[in-house]
Design brief:
Elements lengths: L2 H4 L2 H22 L3 H8 L3 H28 L3 H18 L26 H13 L9 E6 L5 E6 L11 H33 L3 H7 L2 H20 L1 H16 L11 H19 L4 E3 L2 E2 L2 H19 L14 H10 L2 H30 L4 H16 L1 H11 L2 H19 L9 H4 L2 H19 L5 H31 L1 H25 L8 H42 L1
Antiparallel strand pairs: 1-2, 3-4
Helix pairs in contact: 2-10, 2-11, 2-12, 3-14, 4-9, 4-10, 4-20, 5-9, 5-10, 5-12, 11-15, 13-20, 14-17, 14-20, 14-21, 15-19, 17-19, 17-21, 19-20, 20-21
């Protein structure tokens, strides 16, 4: 078959755009709200950070491995379709995990519930908060749980009526809580020996240790396993599809149009997170018997993933083994390591990734504590994505006044300002002003990174260098940021974690310009000018050779004429 019948660039870009739109919409329906669902299940901030950090680490390692294997065996389409089906099935398994506290509600119209893993300091703060509102009369039955010294959980049912009849004072309930904790504290010492003996006997038997494990740890390990399997099915999708599309366009000499398909990812994420937030907010607290409305997030992901399968079945893939470049990431790492400015950019992306993960994991927690529901959350996140997508319209003007290094510093500083602002939220829509800054923070950041990639990349390594920043720097930063952020929230609270992350990033933004000034500048190689120079040099050499030949011929002719005259005379 002739080449012009095999290649259809417009059709390839349309299918790739539809695939990126659907995949981004499916992920946006679920992933931004995942930490909020983990909070409803009863996971502590530390456990939530570990789960999210494991998710990012699996994506960091598993995506390139599956991409190389599917390319080596030419099974890209099989891998994508299999991952879509598997992710749709696994996402429907997660809602069947029972929460640690059966009395947890999924709506925001209830008294704050204390998780079994919360510290005693947080418990005392909640007691003081309840005492502040001791004159409150609540019409709906409410549950409050308190952590006991022995690690158990006591649930108190507060059935408060508005007319004062059969009402129970919150202060009286708090006193009952304290008395209960004192009694359990006296019993704690007598139970330590029996628990120690039981744990010693069961330490040699793994199955027995699982049986005696408390509910909280069982929940944590179960969620960790299922989220890891879910991530393993989702991570290879975009990586593998991008590889196939780029090779297809490269074979058609249209690789310059590859970046146009990425715009649909932001558009799809905007529709996904906004649509899911609006849909879930319109439902009642429980959509069925003991089924919270947050389950809709998983259902939306599963439906969109299954709808994506027909589009993925027609994605254009071309495997050109002659142009296969193994160890592309290794070459990209070598190029980044060989430039001081590239290393500074990599460190900046690593720190920004840590702050971004901390904000993404616990921003919805902070919004929920300030009265936000899924409607406020979804529309706020969608507005941030729209602001990020608007950078190409103003990026050309900004790039005329700021170099890539200065814009990188400015963007990182704005991320720090956003994180600091999030620690002072006061209402459901208070997050919106900071989301406008996404135009310069995220949009400007990736523009500066792309300029840095173009500066150090050589022919054929552009995507490898870009993936070093996207995968190794950003995903590695998200892994570390999730773990450190969870530990910080557990110890200091969400607000102080946001402020600490902002301070660290601001300090780096002060040091970064000084390091950039001392770093040597690398002149970009313009291959078009180089080729033009080679052509001009070649033409000059050819003209010189022609002139030399003409001069030599004229001299020979002159010599022959003179010799002829001498012979004639």
């Amino acid at each position: 078959m002739r080449r012009n019948r095999q290649i259809n660039v417009a059709r390839a870009l349309a299918l790739a755009g539809a695939f990126n739109f659907l995949i981004s919409a499916a992920k946006a329906c679920l992933l931004p709200f995942l930490t909020l669902y983990l909070r409803h299940l009863g996971l502590s901030p530390t456990e939530t950070g570990l789960v999210m950090g494991t998710k990012h680490f699996i994506a960091l390692v598993w995506s390139p491995i599956t991409g190389l294997l599917s390319k080596h065996y030419d099974k890209r389409r099989v891998l994508i379709n299999s991952c879509l089906v598997a992710s749709a099935v696994v996402s429907l398994v997660i809602p069947f995990i029972p929460p640690a506290d059966v009395h947890k509600l999924d709506c925001n119209d209830h008294i704050s519930v204390i998780s079994p893993t919360q510290s005693s300091m947080d418990t005392r703060k909640t007691e003081a908060h309840l005492m502040t509102y001791s004159n409150l009369k609540i019409t709906n039955p409410t549950f409050a749980s308190v952590e006991m010294p022995n690690g158990s959980q006591e649930v108190y049912h507060l059935s408060l009526s508005s007319n004062g009849n059969q009402s129970l004072s919150i202060v009286t309930t708090i006193q009952a809580m304290k008395e209960k904790r004192s009694i359990v504290g006296l019993q704690n010492n007598s139970n330590k020996k029996s628990k120690l003996s039981d744990s010693t006997e069961s330490s040699f038997d793994f199955i027995s240790s699982l049986k005696v494990m408390d509910i909280q740890h069982q929940l944590f390990f179960l969620i960790l396993i299922i989220i890891s399997v879910f991530t393993a099915t989702v991570a290879p999708l975009e990586w593998t599809a991008d590889d196939g599309l780029y090779e297809y366009l490269d074979f058609a000499d249209a690789s310059d149009r590859y970046s146009s398909s990425k715009t649909w990812s932001l558009i799809g994420a905007t529709f996904g997170v906004g649509g899911a937030g609006i849909l879930v907010s319109q439902l009642s607290c429980l959509i069925a018997a003991e089924t919270p409305r947050s389950v809709v997030h998983f259902v939306c992901f599963s439906v969109i993933a299954l709808v994506t399968i027909p589009v993925a079945s027609f994605l254009p893939f071309y495997l050109n083994r002659k142009r296969t470049r193994p160890n592309g990431l290794v070459k990209g790492l070598q190029l980044v390591r060989g430039s001081i400015r590239a290393l500074l950019c990599a460190i900046t992306i690593l720190l920004v990734g840590m702050v971004i993960s901390a904000v993404e994991n616990f921003l919805l927690w902070e919004m929920q504590d300030n009265g936000s529901n899924e409607l406020h959350m979804g529309l706020s996140l969608a507005f941030g994505l729209i602001s990020q997508a608007a950078f190409p319209f103003c990026g050309v003007k900004i790039s005329k006044f700021l170099s890539s290094g200065r814009l990188l510093t400015l963007s990182a500083a704005i991320v720090a300002v956003q994180s600091f602002y999030f620690s002072f939220l006061w209402g459901p829509w208070a997050v919106l002003p900071a989301q406008i800054l996404n135009t310069l923070s995220f949009g400007g950041l990736w523009w500066a990174v792309q300029v840095q990639c173009d500066d150090i990349a050589i022919l054929g390594t552009e995507r490898s260098v870009t993936r070093v920043y996207n995968a190794l720097c950003l995903d590695l930063g998200r892994t570390l940021g999730s773990i450190i952020g969870g530990l910080s929230v557990q110890k200091f609270g969400i607000a102080w974690m946001f402020r600490g992350a902002a301070v660290v990033l601001i300090i780096w933004c002060i040091i970064l310009p000084l390091l950039q000034m001392k770093a040597p500048r690398q002149r970009r190689i313009n291959y078009s000018r180089l080729l033009a120079a080679d052509a001009s040099e070649a033409s000059e050499s050819e003209s010189e050779q022609e002139r030399d030949w003409l001069d030599k011929a004229m001299q020979d002719d002159k010599c022959n004429y003179n010799n002829g005259r001498r012979m004639h005379h």
